[in-house]
Amino acid sequence: MAVERSSSTSSSSSSSSSSSSTTGGLIVVREFDPRKDRVGVEEVERRCEVGPSGKLSLFTDLLGDPICRVRHSPAFLMLVAELGGEIVGMVRGCIKTVTCGKKLCRNVKTNTSNYLKAPLPVYTKAAYILGLRISPSHRRMGIGLKLVREIEEWFRQNGAEYSYLATENDNQASVKLFTDKCGYSKFRTPSILVNPVFAHRVAVSKRVTIIELAPHDAVLLYRRRFATTEFFPRDIDSVLNNKLSLGTFLAVPRGRYGPGSWSGSAGFLANPPESWAVLSVWNCKDVFMLEVRGASRMKRTFVKTTRMVDKALPFLRLPSVPDVFKPFGLHFMYGLGGEGPQAVKMMRALCAHAHNLAKKRGCGVVATEVSSREPLRLAIPHWKMLSCAEDLWCIKRLGEDYSDGSVGDWTKSPPDSSIFVDPREF
Ligand SMILES: CC(C)(COP(=O)(O)OP(=O)(O)OC[C@H]1O[C@@H](n2cnc3c(N)ncnc32)[C@H](O)[C@@H]1OP(=O)(O)O)[C@@H](O)C(=O)NCCC(=O)NCCS
């Protein structure tokens, strides 16, 4: 395959474009240009999402902004593949600094003047690939592989040490492309848990108080308690201060804090209650909308009926399905954590609170993604039929000069009990 290179610029740093010939003609890979490529990209997305006839399929409407799922990351790039002037494929990538392990530091002083070994995060620059799509009529021509190689080149130029992606375990084309052809290995299998938003409010335990944290308090709490969690983003402040972050909520036993007695996260962490839990909510509804297509008339009528009954008689607490056959939005719960014997109970209260927030803001579902070993997952309500038990994350080491000396090769490390899933890339 002959490849020519020429330079171009990306939204966040410089990249390159290239062309190569296939049996079907000359493939040009270049940076996405919002002024002229939007329609072509949307057409490829549409063609990729047509499910097998007679089966349900999930459509994603990116609300006219093909870069929406990466644009909140510190550095991002979208590439398109063009054949004879027609867009036939695309890929998005973003780079950020995340925790890849922890090391012990001896210099932390406790209240009793003793010195403790405290774990500190080890950071690495990691790149994430998402939204790789090739038009069905142009598959198996090497275009997907070419797009991956090009985006990896941009990752390397920008100092990324690892590249990773998430794919469905049973997506053979994608798994084979990344593992057989691109050198990725299977790394983690977190679960995507999805719960419908009912027409009734869900009761929040009366034995729990929920406090909404100011962004600076949320940043402090996350940095102090969760910075060593795998994939924790070093720029957590940009995440929590983003307009899409709808709030961070802390659950504590009732009676612990009266009105006005909250004095900030530093005081809280110096003397925390025996049990507490925290989560944050991200507004994906303003980024993309979803829609289930291909449902039979009978299914639609059933869903509509349960909804009508739930709306009319909310005290029955009927677990009704929202109208997912029209575009609907979702909220994403992230940064879930907690401590103590009652942490699961606290988390349950937070999930109920998040449900009611999603209902108030007109969402169809609430989703989250947690490690398969997450101890708090027991508290997260979800419907199995809407969830994905094993979202496959694959990873690759991009070079040999590393800053992660005390961790070694991250790709070989065993999974931890928790994982931080960045809402900017969900
Ligand atoms: C996955 C996808 C991007 C592959 O794109 P593509 O341009 O067809 O892939 P390529 O032609 O570059 O294939 C490279 C290698 O990937 C593997 N591969 C690709 N499609 C495959 C398939 N249907 N079955 C098995 N292996 C496949 C093969 O190893 C192939 O090499 P080979 O042709 O020499 O055997 C494409 O099928 C697609 O857009 N799927 C729908 C969206 C999607 O699943 N995206 C990935 C989400 S992360």
From TrEMBL:
Matching CDD domains: NAT_SF
Record's compositionally biased regions (Low complexity): 1-23
GO molecular function per UniProt: acyltransferase activity, transferring groups other than amino-acyl groups
Keyword field contains Transferase: yes
One Pfam entry name: Acetyltransf_1
Keywords in alphabetical order: Acyltransferase, Transferase
Region (Disordered) residue spans: 1-25
Domain N-acetyltransferase: 27-211
UniProt KW Cell membrane keyword: no
Stated family: Belongs to the acetyltransferase family.
Protein name from the UniProt record: N-acetyltransferase domain-containing protein
Species per Swiss-Prot/TrEMBL record: Erythroxylum novogranatense
